[in-house]
Amino acid sequence: MPPLAERLDLAELVMRSLDRTAELPPKFGVHPRQVGSLAQAMPALLRGEAEDGSADLLGVKWIAGFPDNPRRGLPAYHALVLLTHPTSGEPLAVMDGGVITAARTSAVSGAVIRNLLRCGRACQASDGLRVALLGAGAQARAHLPVIGHLIPGARVRVVDLDRGRAEALAGEGTAIAGVASVKTAAGVREAVDGATFVVSMVSFGPNRQALDPAWLAPGVVFVAVDYDMEAPAALARDGLFLVDEATQFRAAQDGGQFAGYPEPDGTIGQLLAGEELGARKDATASGSAAASRTLVTHLGVGLADVVFGSAILARAEQLGLGRLLPR
Ligand SMILES: NC(=O)c1ccc[n+]([C@@H]2O[C@H](COP(=O)([O-])OP(=O)(O)OC[C@H]3O[C@@H](n4cnc5c(N)ncnc54)[C@H](O)[C@@H]3O)[C@@H](O)[C@H]2O)c1
Q1: Cα 160 to averaged position of ligand 1 atoms, centre (Å)
Q2: pLDDT class for 282, splitting at 50, 70, 90?
Q3: Is residue 126 over pLDDT 90?
Q4: How far apart are CA 123 and CA 265, in angstroms?
């Protein structure tokens, strides 16, 4: 796995490429029987600079998620990333997509946080900011080092339906570079109270859009990793609302998620490119707490898995790691 600083740059590359040099269909999948489960294919192509396609990156992630797994001692998500030669179609590598999913997702959140800290809608000093983590599973564990790296002295509050999981994460948290404290909260309201950044990553389930936006501070940046499990439509309607990839967002909405959400104000790629976003909302509701909030929903793109997988393959080849499979 590339080091954290490189992962943030890879995540930025992915977000900036989405509207330009990438090709990827919305996720498609089949539906296993367990409530909240999914099994999806996420093919992606990144076009490199070489005209003959030799610098392109090509591959697919196959991911299966079963929210009850942690109760059985298994990760909620298992995944494979398959990389394919871009001009011959030969298989290049098969990788554990679980770790890649956690690393690339937290890096995308990190790229957003880094940008908004640098100079978002309201530039702010990062030291010692309050951060709320909703959910204390694999994603939260992957996000903590990113938060410590970007927000030195971060004071984190974590909440999970399973209090033991939140306590375990809190116990590990203070050993992470840059994290000043990790405390557990009794509920979501307590966790988000006064937080400048909220990262939402609870398991999928039947009760969506659970959070009351009145609990959020003015100017909060809410990063939704768990689709609309916590973030309500009102947050998207009233504040600045960004997604990673608009086509995929619309496909998810057509599939019954994100009920009541408006069309996004823009993409993370546009934010990173420094485009002016959400001017209409700023003009109509200037000064209101609701309008000062930002919701960034990243649904996850196969392109991120292919880009991260390719970086891992390049490193593995340099270091002589991995196992060659017989032809
Ligand atoms: N956007 C992306 O790219 C992306 C990638 C991977 C996972 N995800 C999503 O992120 C979420 C977390 O994934 P994970 O791998 O960490 O799962 P996980 O099962 O390891 O962790 C989820 C945690 O949420 C807790 N939880 C469930 N409902 C809750 C609630 N109402 N309040 C507080 N805690 C609650 C569970 O007890 C569990 O500890 C899932 O919704 C998953 O679908 C998104």
Answers
A1: 9
A2: low
A3: no
A4: 20
